[in-house]
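Can you please make up a whole protein chain along with its backbone structure tokens because I've never seen that pairing?
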Amino acid sequence: MDKTTAKEEAKWTFWLLTAGISTTFGAAIPTGYNIGVINAPANFIKEWCNETIFETYGTVLSVGALDTFWAVVVSIFLIGGVIGSLGGAWVADKLGRKRSYLTCGVLLVLGGVCFQFCRAVGSVELLLLGRVLVGLAAGLTTSTVPMYLTELAPIELRGALGVFCSMGVTGGVVVGQVMSLEDIFGTDELWQFALSFYVILVIICFVPYHWLPESPKYLYVMKQRRDEAINEIKRLRGKDAKDDYVKQQIEAMRSEDTQNSINDDEETQRSKPKQRSLWSVLTDPKLTLPLLLVCALQGGQQLSGINAVFFYSVSIFESVGLSSTDAKFANLGAGCLNLFVAFFTPVLMGKFNRRLLALLSCSMCAVFLFGLTFVVYFIHQVSWFSYASIITILLYILFYQIGLGPIPYFIGSELFEVGPRPAAMAMGSIASWGCNFIVAMLFPTLQSAWGAFVFLPFTVTCVLLTILLKIYLPETRGRHISSIAPLVSNGFRSKPLVPWS
């Protein structure tokens, strides 16, 4: 690709921006919101649950039983995320990328309605149903939205648009934390408004849905509706859609259509199935390594301990003399740092190679997690280690967000061609939500048993992930997917770092 063409591809257009903003605010931010909103008003909701269960069933839960019930309320969201991810491949293929986004919005609205009215009708079942629905939406969002955006984007903007979902989830966590503060909706009387507030955002952001473009690659390769695909390319590019540019996009889509034999006639090509089931992707030896990379990155993103660090940071902030309330605000500040760095990720993805950012992020996360283990273990022996622990947390968050935070969300769209892509993205999303569930369930127990050493498994995860990426992750920035897939098609015998012409 010459420089003129690359420069032309790198232009942001109206519908490209509209699709990115709509999906980010309409699905990704609500996903993060439902992660961050549940913690602050937890005691108020638990008390309501206990009272409601007594009024409905005549049973008073013990402290242990109530804690167990609350663990179910929290974790059922993650289980919904796994199930939603599992269905992501089917939804993306059957309904299309655009309608997958619509499905996310419908589930989010239904979940918000459950949250809003669960208190009015006195039903804990409605609260649980709401958590399941938003969990399903979250899993579907992380498995389909990044794929939708990267398929809309020209090659030069693929990474920049691909991180919108990551930015949205990160921002949503912070917004959820803010809206659940006691000064806003985090009170005994208003917690249901905290849980359902995001619905307003979803409804507003779905206003332009009807006019959003469908993925040209989905239309061209999966549905063989080639005229529609060409029209969507022209609409995405707007008035700058030159014939040469459109032809290049068509050629790129043809090269991804790997299931079409060169010698097949048009009728035979149209009759061939394009969709790939989860099982066919899992059992295809040519897809083993890229699938491992996607699942390792998405699962490693959670097993790197980001949620555990945020959970533990409150107690660390308290150790330097902050009150419980101030420590929570300091923790919110750490979340804001996470969001602040996330705002720069589209620029980072456009200027720097994915491989460089991923390796730097994973290796430095390992260093600072080990450092956090060390300073927390000796925090009472060395006075200034309390402040060192805060600096370590902030540096960990910084390096996490430049690579390990955003890249896993869209890397599957750069390693897989159109056919197996939905299944691969679904498997990666399953790995993410599954590992998130494992951390949520095990971390409190391990923290009690191991103390500061609870961060060592996260350190080991980052080290192993660094080694895997160092050996097998090819550079994907600025490259067509049809040229990347062969680099990792020979499993562990692949040599993805061999320069290609």
In short: The two ends are 12 Å apart (CA to CA). Residues 25 and 81 are 19 Å apart (CA to CA). Confidence is low (pLDDT under 50) at residues 258-273. The chain is about 75% helix and 0% strand.
